[in-house]
Amino acid sequence: MYSTIQITTPVEMIPCSRCKGDMPELRYTQYGYDFCINCSTIGAKRGIPVQMGEGDHTWTETVIMDEDVYKKYTEERLGQRPEPKLEDDHPDLKDRDVQGPFKIINRNL
C-alpha cells in the first residue's frame, strides 16, 4: 500500500495590474509580468517537425510558432486547412485549456 504526502508551499500573491485579481508574486519578480495569465494576450503555440540534413546526417527539429502563423503556414505551404480544434466539436470545453487532436470517448453510453 502506498501513501501520498502532499506538501503545499505557500505562494505569495499580489494584485494583477489589469483585473486586480490575485496572481503569484514570482510571476512579477522573476519574469517581469505585472498582469495575470487570464489578462495575457498571448495564445497557444504550435509546433511543426522539420527534417534537416542529408543522408546519414539528418536530424529533426521542432519549429515553434504562434497559432496565426501556423494557420498561414498550413494553408499556404501545405495547401490544406488546419485541423479543427477540439472546442469546435465540444463547445463545453471552449473555456478550458485543452490542446491537441483528442477524441473524447464516452464509455457510459
Overview of this protein structure:
It is a single chain. This protein has 109 residues and is of the alpha+beta class. It has two domains: 11-42, no CATH class; 45-93, no CATH class. It has three helices and four strands, in the order ββαββαα. A two-stranded antiparallel ribbon has the order 1-2. The chain has a two-stranded antiparallel sheet with strand order 3-4. The longest helix has 10 residues, at 67-76. The relative contact order is 0.09. The mean pLDDT is 79.
Keywords:
extended; two-stranded antiparallel sheet; 24% strand; two-stranded antiparallel ribbon; alpha+beta; 109 residues
SSE blueprint and pairings:
Blueprint: E1 13-15, E2 22-24, H1 25-29, E3 45-54, E4 57-66, H2 67-76, H3 86-89
Antiparallel strand pairs: 1-2, 3-4
β-sheet strand percentage: 15-25%
Spans of 5+ residues with little confidence (pLDDT < 50)?
none
What is the β-strand count? 4
* Helix/strand order, N-terminal first: EEHEEHH
From the N-terminal CA to the C-terminal CA, the straight-line distance is: 33 Å
Structural category is alpha+beta
Report mean pLDDT, rounded to a whole number.
79
Going across the biggest sheet, name each strand in turn.
1-2
Number of continuous helical runs: 3
Count of individual domains: 2
| Main β sheet profile | 2 strands, antiparallel
- Fraction in helix: 10-25%
